[in-house]
Design brief:
The structure is a single chain. The chain has 31 helices and eleven strands. With about 700 residues, it is an alpha/beta fold.
Amino acid sequence: MTDSLFHIALVGNPNSGKSSLFNALTGLNQKVGNFPGVTVDKKTGTCSLEPGSPVNIIDLPGTYSLYPRRADEWVSYKVLMNVDATVRPDMVVLVADASNLKRNLLFCSQIIDLKIPVVLALTMVDLAHKKGMEIDLNELERELGVPVVAINPRKNKGIPQLKKVMAQTVRHQYKAPGRDFIGIRSLADKAVGDVQEMFPALTDYASVHYLINHESFPFTADVQEKIENIEIANKFNPTKLQAEEIMQRYTRIKQIMQVSVVEEDPLQKKLFTEKLDNILLHRTWGYVILLSVLFLLFQSIFWLAEYPMTAIEWMFTTVTGFLNNQLPSVWWSDLLTNGLLAGLSGILVFIPQIMILFGLITILEDSGYMARISFLSDKLMRKVGLNGKSVMPMISGFACAVPAIMSARSIENRKERLLTILVTPLMSCSARLPVYTILISLVVPNKFLLGFLNLQGLVMMALYLLGTVMALIVSYVFKWIIKIQEKSFFILELPTYRAPRWKNVGITMVEKAKIFVVDAGKVIMVISLLLWFLSSFGPGERIDNVTAKYEQLKQQPNANSASLDKEYRAEKLQNSYAGILGNSIEPAITPLGYDWKIGIALITSFAAREVFVGTMATLYSVEEDNENSSLREKMQGAVTADGRKVYTLASGLSLMVFYVLAMQCMSTLAVVKRETGTWKWPIIQLLYMTGLAYVMSLLVYQLFK
């Protein structure tokens, strides 16, 4: 132990109410990290079972049994098998859904046979009553040999009794039952005995798991070889043993259910959930309702986030303006206002969308509808290498790719989760909207087709559709390239409908915002400062020449200082390191119809896509007061060195396609790095999206020029 506190692990099947119990026990005394080596959430918190006796609570990922398939199930499995060096629980609280008691008792019986001190916490007892089930808790406790407590974490019922039993169990006043739940020794007696000679403290059932999964445990090569030899010598067949074990367990569970549970006739009338599913999962109306829900979610993120985002932008604009008026015109004040504050605003402005998105997703999850969305969309998603759980991250990408990628954690299959992360940035986020708006107004006539279809609106819709179609195509291609051999079984339990847990919604919103600010924010700040440096400085001689030139111009009679200042900033930017870089890449972007100014915008807008408009405003010497008409006039009048218009239909459409497909958001790359745990995939993502954007933009330009 790293400290003197007791460590208690919460385990249970998915949708059993485990997260509700964790929140009820720990309240706001929580922190979220990651288990070492994986991106599975590690939720921990502190709880006082008795006055002055705090304990650590570890919320382990949901799992159905001790035979793991997904990455999150492996995390729970290794902790329960006591081979995870970072988490060593003193006892286990197993949360079980009373309305699905038979299935939940399978996992419970396996933990009992590990001889870990365990308390069974029964949730959803009220739902069991509605199903006509009456559970004799005392009889169930006698049959299992472990304490059983009925709780309702949502209403804080049974929590004091549970804490009391937990305190008694952790002090060993309740001990693990002496007899095994089933006769596991009879299935592999000699092999189990041989393993126990190597590990004398192991129980019979733990020995079986050492035989089955020792390759995944952190043992030395010598130990691995010895266990392998035991398997060979005893002709150990893990598949046959597992099948026989499960059959024995369900036979015993059936006996327990007969003496401790009274169940109503299974032909009883359908519950509210089943009746509602007849509508929401209907082969026609189900999809209509799904599209309506997603549309409302999409609109709500924009609508609800608009005001707080505007307030954050106004706050930073006000603070920046105040500091610009008060501070001297020196490099460090520019660093403060245009470097640090600009970078910080780029982080904090995302928070409303992140909190609102995860709040709405949590409401959908808590209500039980999220599982229905995944079920309805799985057929289409599976054809391109994804599954039904990929839908919500991709739809969320229309608002912002950052929280959308974070929400992909709900996808258990590593390959499908990785594919979702790789293609989600292709969904047109809200930051692209200012770019689309100004470019469409420049090159697309404002006219109507058939008298009612606005052409500019159709082009806007086509851009969003292009991103979605390309995401599905890219996923289809990558599914053949990525060689992760993890099998995908879309086995989904449809939970009952219930009211959202508003406390849980609030905690989730705060935690997700905190993760983004702390983890992704550090990378964003570094790159923001780098972009400020590249845009503010250049080779000394070139900058000195530009400065001297405009100082002379200001000395002339009738010189317009304000106009000269704008021109000076634009020319200084052209001669900065960023400007030099823009000129240096001009030969590469000329085939797309772009000039060096667009090249600079492509570089600076890597901080955030909407920076494109601000960069254009600076380059075309237009005051940054959102007078888009003036900016449009300047951009419409822009010409190349040989007198050709810069913004034609061909170049405008090419640039729009580039912004649809290119990875131009450093915060997205930062989050991808965090979620995948390596820079490999962000780099691959940057390269494939840039290449795809270049090729498609080139084709569009050549087609329309």
